[in-house]
Write a structure and sequence with these properties.
2 copies of one chain form a homodimer. Chain A has 2 domains: 3-140, Jelly Rolls (Sandwich), CATH 2.60.120; 150-237, Arc Repressor Mutant, subunit A, CATH 1.10.10. By secondary structure, chain A is α+β, with helices and mostly antiparallel strands. In chain A, a hairpin with a 5-residue loop joins strand 4 (62-67) and strand 5. The first copy, chain A, is globular. Chain A starts with 7 loop residues before the first helix and ends in an 18-residue tail after the last helix. Chain A has 9 helices and 10 strands. In chain A, strands 2-6-4-5 form a 4-stranded antiparallel sheet. Chain A has a 3-stranded antiparallel sheet with strand order 1-7-3. In chain A, helix 4 (112-121) crosses helix 5 (123-149), helix 6 (152-169) packs across helix 9 (223-229) and helix 7 crosses helix 8. Chain A has helices spanning 8-14, 22-29, 87-91, 112-121, 123-149, 152-169, 184-191, 195-207, 223-229, and strands at residues 34-38, 43-45, 53-59, 62-67, 73-79, 98-101, 105-111, 177-179, 212-214, 217-219. In chain A, 42% of the residues lie in helices and 19% in strands. At the A-B interface, strand 5, helix 4 and helix 5 of A face strand 5, helix 4 and helix 5 of B. The structure holds a DNA duplex.
DNA sequence: CGACGATTTGAAATCAGTCAAGAGCAGTGG
DNA sequence: CCACTGCTCTTGACTGATTTCAAATCGTCG
């Protein structure tokens, strides 16, 4: 293998949606990049920036969020190992949202023009990256539905289900037992609720035996039951047959 | 000009974000397609379908929406002349949301494999289409923020501002005077509110002189004032310098 | 031990939803 | 030309989910 495999998480992620030839894979692995360690709560991109690099997460968690004029924060998505987290901002030239670390993060920064050239030279890779941004879009849509039309209980349960599957896919947890990477206040900002209400809602889910939690760890005793009250249907994650019976 | 110009609205839209060479433009215009007239409220794609065609809107309005298990509906976006409205669904193979006409619609249906081939053969066009889906994503994010973190009044005003600019860009209205293509119930589903509350909110905006309305027509006497109380910043539409001082 | 952030809890306030009914308006058919 | 039908819009009174405000407890890390 002629190249470093540091960027392998990106290849793995791309291969979730598109089969890559060896040369395509090698071309991705050969992308020039700078490695950086970021501490928790650092901004990667700020709304209004004109980023020249895209940021591939190798370890840790990051979020994308926007702020209202009155200071309200809405978290739009969570990102983890293998996600290229500001492809959207950098391809559109001008960032329309913030990207911020949640935990300490190991990341590779790749110049955006190199990514654009790769997409043009290797249509298969371009298609795979396009697909990744489309799946991001699908997740945004589900979040909009979640925030707009589900009550606090359903909404919270739904988020817990999404985490379960997404962590499972990248091997950072099991579907029925994982570590929540967020505080209740951050959950609130992802759910469009207040942290107080998130707290009460989590307690109510626990009281009904739908989840068990100690600290940040979540255990789901009966996946099907939780998925049902969460109104959760994993199709929007577009994981296809990659997961056993996800509901 | 060797080709029909029926697909010109698509070229115009793509050129909002990317400059196209003549050959690229001609390649788009030469796309094989079937024209269809759709009546109001017809489904173009249903959640769960596996569409083989993408649908370019030539006239009229369409929406994308998702339903909760309990029947709640969230409208995710509105589409008009020049929008390729189910690129997302068709490229991902399996539709994760519904696409439905709002009014009578004239549309061109283009086979998805032809679109994929075009994107691969002509990277510039591929990039332009990718960009279009990225801007869609940017609009989803803003809607999530809108629904999750803004109160009913701000939220409603924000939507009115977005419509104003988007209709202006495609030449279907003026920024300060346009025809709303939706009923109040549909507005409610876009805003995550009830139609009763939308009604009261519109009345309250009108009472404060921020909008004037007769039937579906909206007039905005003072754009800056409305944009301000709407917490509206048009950057997320990524229209760049294409609009005079949009705020 | 002390400090700081995160979680938990209670009580009061409020924004938006629900239910229900009437008014306006356009299209249809007699 | 008019009554009828079916939407959409409007309005009022009441309800309720979620927020707000405030304070106590917990946990972890230096």
């Amino acid at each position: 293998m002629p190249f470093s495999t540091i960027l392998m998480p990106m290849v793995t992620k791309l291969q979730l949606w598109t089969r890559l030839e060896d040369e395509d894979r090698d071309a991705v692995l050969a992308l020039p990049h700078k490695l950086r360690s970021l501490r928790a709560h650092e901004y990667i991109v700020r709304d209004g920036d004109e980023p020249r690099h895209s940021c591939l997460i190798l370890g840790g968690f990051a979020i994308r969020h926007k702020l209202t004029g009155s200071g309200g924060r809405q978290i739009m998505s969570i990102h983890m190992k293998g996600d290229v987290v500001d492809l959207q901002n950098s391809l559109l030239r001008s960032a329309d949202h913030n990207v911020q670390t949640l935990t300490n993060v190991e990341a590779a920064f790749i110049p955006i023009d190199v990514i654009e050239k790769l997409a043009a030279d290797r249509p298969t890779v371009g298609k795979a990256m396009w697909n990744e941004t489309l799946v991001d879009g699908a997740i945004f849509r589900e979040w909009t539905l979640n925030v707009g039309r589900r009550d606090a209980r359903t909404r919270t349960a739904h988020l817990l289900c999404e985490f379960a599957l997404r962590l499972e896919v990248v091997g950072l947890g099991e579907r029925c037992h994982y570590e929540l990477p967020m505080t209740q206040e951050q959950l609130a900002d992802a759910l469009g609720l207040t942290s107080v209400h998130v707290n009460r809602t989590l307690k109510s889910l626990a009281a009904d035996g739908l989840i068990e939690r100690t600290n940040r760890s979540v255990r789901i005793p009966d996946w099907k039951k939780l998925a049902e009250i969460a109104d959760f249907d994993s199709r929007y994650l577009h994981l296809d047959q990659r997961l056993p019976a996800a509901t």
